[in-house]
């Protein structure tokens, strides 16, 4: 790739003639079944692979636009574009006539893609984050002086007059490019933000252009099927049968909120009405569920989760109207897992106190350490105690993509509901989460509404309208990027990427275990998260430091790494101490990066302890 400075940048206003531009020839994958599968490590020679070819003529050879026959252009009259002369890029505002706009739109696309690739290769791979502190960056962003009082620093008024697209792209280069977080950097091991797969980025681009609203069926006629398909794939992955269903969400928080809503309106409803919860479903007799519990009917209800559950479980119960104390936190074990035994004891104690246990919220791949609760034991307990079992596998669910590593999660097939977030370990760009339910009717009975304006008469079958299965109304077409990139890699390919990151985490943990100046908690990661800390001077010397000093060393080390640009890890608190946290969902990382990160931390740590006077 030529260096950015050597390239001629097409501006949006002055498109190079399409035919003059060099077009990269991409490749069209033939149908999977037709191809001889290259093994992952030995890619087929490029020449053997099918090529992407342009199927439509370019530039002026293009046929005239295909408007509806009843929409004829009147000749001899002013062109609609003439109404848009007030804008520096009129053809990018009224772009309905390809003869007048298509070249400019193509040039805009080329310029935007070039800005994107310049960012990726000049910035994204250069460092994970910039060195600036929050206040400094905020002042700079808003053009305030370094000593301006914080209260006076803030956003300017909205732009009143138009600006040319080229200038806006230039502003991106000048003001934004250098100040991003990059998940692409090979030592960027952040929360759960992966570098997105290229086909998922392309999927997102197409999604924005076709702009489907996957709520009422008419607004996304085939989008609804693409979502249905990806939901099927996810349900198959967690082991759910044909009666299962789900909905894509903005992420794990939304999915967990929806899960707790379903648990309240299906399971708690049955318990409050006096029947056994899951044991006797009135719907199996053609009767409706009892009314969903509200207000006083929520008093005394109990949900069980560990101290490692995601904050969204507590938030969900809060906004669903449950009184304080509904969530009973059961301490996790020494490997941060929720075990069935302590939950059984808590349930028994609560029953004796006259309370109403109704759900367990387990986590398979916790945010903090990647720990996996005892899902098998909790599944049996939920069945025995008539409790709803929700498993938050927002991150960890992706381990099921790998035959080799699926066992680390265990079977989720008997859970009532499962959260899986493809924007974590399925390597998708934000946003795409999902809630899956074992019984489709649970989702529909909870969220179904029939507003008069969402009528769909005139079809022999009731169309699939996702707003009836989701908390959301207008819904982005989230499925396309997952659908396209899943096809591109296949389940086996996605699984290989998961394994790759698990292996990197294992390597990091092994190097740490073999060293005297790092320790990990737990020593061997359940999945691809490693929590560790640096022990200045080795274990013996660090034992002489008080906890607060050791915590401060980790915070300063994290910041030193951030400033260096050599890598990025976050910090967290575990068992009262501060730990560095590497959440490795980066399939671009290599073993060298693991070794290099530890070397960077050792070198930077030496400066940290010197500055601290230790
Ligand atoms: C286990 C788990 N559940 C839920 C969430 C929330 O997901 P989101 O932030 O995508 O809404 C996270 C986020 O990291 C998570 O790790």
| Percent range of helical residues | 25-40%
Strand order of the largest sheet: 2-8-7-6-5-3-4
At CATH level 2, the architecture of the domain at 233-476 is 3-Layer(aba) Sandwich
Work out the number of β strands: 12
The structural class is alpha/beta
Approximately what portion of the residues adopt beta-strand conformation?
5-15%
Which residues sit in consecutive blocks of at least 5 with pLDDT less than 50?
1-43
The CATH superfamily of the domain at 233-476 turns out to be: Type I PLP-dependent aspartate aminotransferase-like (Major domain)
CATH topology of the domain at 233-476: Aspartate Aminotransferase, domain 2
- Shape assignment: globular
Mean pLDDT: 91
* Largest β-sheet summary: 7 strands, mixed
Bound molecules: pyridoxal-5'-phosphate
How far apart lie the N and C ends?
Answer: 47 Å
Rg over alpha carbons = 27 Å
CATH class of the domain at 233-476: Alpha Beta
H/I helix tally: 15
- Note the run of SSEs as H and E: HHHEHHEHEHEHEHEEHEHHEEHHEEH
């Amino acid at each position: 790739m030529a260096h950015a400075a050597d390239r001629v940048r097409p501006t949006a206003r002055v498109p190079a003639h399409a035919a003059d531009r060099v077009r990269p020839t991409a490749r069209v994958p033939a149908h999977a079944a037709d191809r001889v599968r290259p093994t992952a490590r030995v890619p087929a020679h490029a020449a053997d692979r099918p090529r992407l070819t342009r199927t439509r003529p370019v530039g002026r050879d293009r046929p005239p636009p295909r408007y509806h026959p009843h929409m004829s252009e009147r000749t001899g009259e002013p062109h609609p574009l003439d109404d848009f002369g007030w804008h520096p890029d009129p053809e990018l505002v009224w772009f309905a006539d390809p003869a007048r706009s298509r070249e400019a739109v193509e040039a805009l696309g080329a310029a935007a893609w070039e800005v994107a690739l310049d960012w990726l290769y000049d910035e994204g791979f250069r460092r994970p984050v910039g060195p600036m502190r929050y206040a400094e960056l905020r002042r700079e962003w808003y053009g305030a002086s370094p000593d301006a009082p914080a209260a006076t620093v803030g956003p300017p008024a909205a732009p009143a007059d138009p600006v040319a697209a080229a200038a806006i792209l230039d502003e991106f280069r000048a003001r934004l490019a250098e100040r991003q977080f990059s998940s692409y950097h090979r030592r960027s091991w952040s929360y759960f933000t992966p570098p997105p797969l290229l086909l998922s980025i392309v999927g997102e681009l197409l999604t924005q252009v076709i702009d489907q609203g996957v709520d009422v069926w008419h607004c996304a006629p085939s989008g609804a099927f693409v979502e249905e398909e990806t939901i099927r794939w996810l349900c198959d992955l967690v082991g759910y049968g044909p009666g299962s269903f789900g909905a894509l969400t903005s992420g794990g928080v939304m999915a967990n909120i929806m899960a707790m809503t379903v648990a309240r309106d299906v399971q708690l409803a049955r318990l409050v009405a006096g029947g056994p919860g899951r044991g006797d479903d009135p719907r199996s007799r053609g009767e409706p569920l009892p009314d969903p519990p509200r207000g006083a009917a929520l008093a005394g209800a109990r949900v069980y989760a560990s101290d490692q559950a995601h904050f969204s479980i507590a938030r969900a119960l809060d906004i669903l109207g449950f009184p304080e104390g509904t969530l009973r936190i059961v301490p996790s074990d020494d490997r941060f897992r929720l075990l069935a035994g302590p939950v059984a004891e808590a349930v028994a104690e609560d029953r004796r106190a006259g309370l109403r246990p109704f759900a367990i919220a387990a986590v398979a791949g916790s945010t903090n350490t990647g720990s996996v609760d005892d899902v098998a034991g909790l599944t049996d307990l939920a069945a025995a105690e008539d409790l709803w079992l929700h498993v938050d596998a927002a991150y960890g669910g992706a381990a099921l993509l790998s035959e080799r590593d699926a066992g680390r999660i265990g079977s989720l097939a008997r859970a009532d509901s499962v959260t899986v977030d493809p924007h974590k370990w399925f390597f998708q760009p934000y946003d795409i989460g999902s809630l899956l339910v074992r019984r489709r009717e649970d989702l529909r009975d909870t969220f179904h509404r029939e507003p008069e304006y969402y009528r769909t008469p005139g079809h022999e079958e009731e169309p699939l309208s996702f707003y009836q299965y989701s908390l959301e109304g207008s819904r982005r077409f989230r499925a396309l990027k997952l659908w396209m990139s899943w096809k591109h890699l296949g389940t086996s390919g996605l699984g290989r990427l998961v394994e790759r990151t698990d292996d990197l985490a294992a390597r990091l943990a092994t190097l740490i275990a073999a060293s005297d100046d790092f320790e990990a908690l737990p020593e061997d990661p359940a999945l691809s998260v490693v929590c560790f800390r640096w022990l200045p001077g080795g274990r013996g010397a660090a034992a002489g430091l008080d906890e607060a000093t050791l915590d401060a060393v980790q915070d300063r080390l994290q910041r030193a790494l951030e400033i260096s640009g050599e890598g990025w890890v976050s910090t967290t608190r575990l068992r009262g101490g501060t730990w560095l946290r590497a959440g490795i969902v980066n399939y671009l990382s290599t073993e060298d990066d693991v070794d290099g990160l530890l070397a960077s931390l050792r070198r930077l740590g030496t400066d940290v302890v010197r500055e601290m006077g230790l």
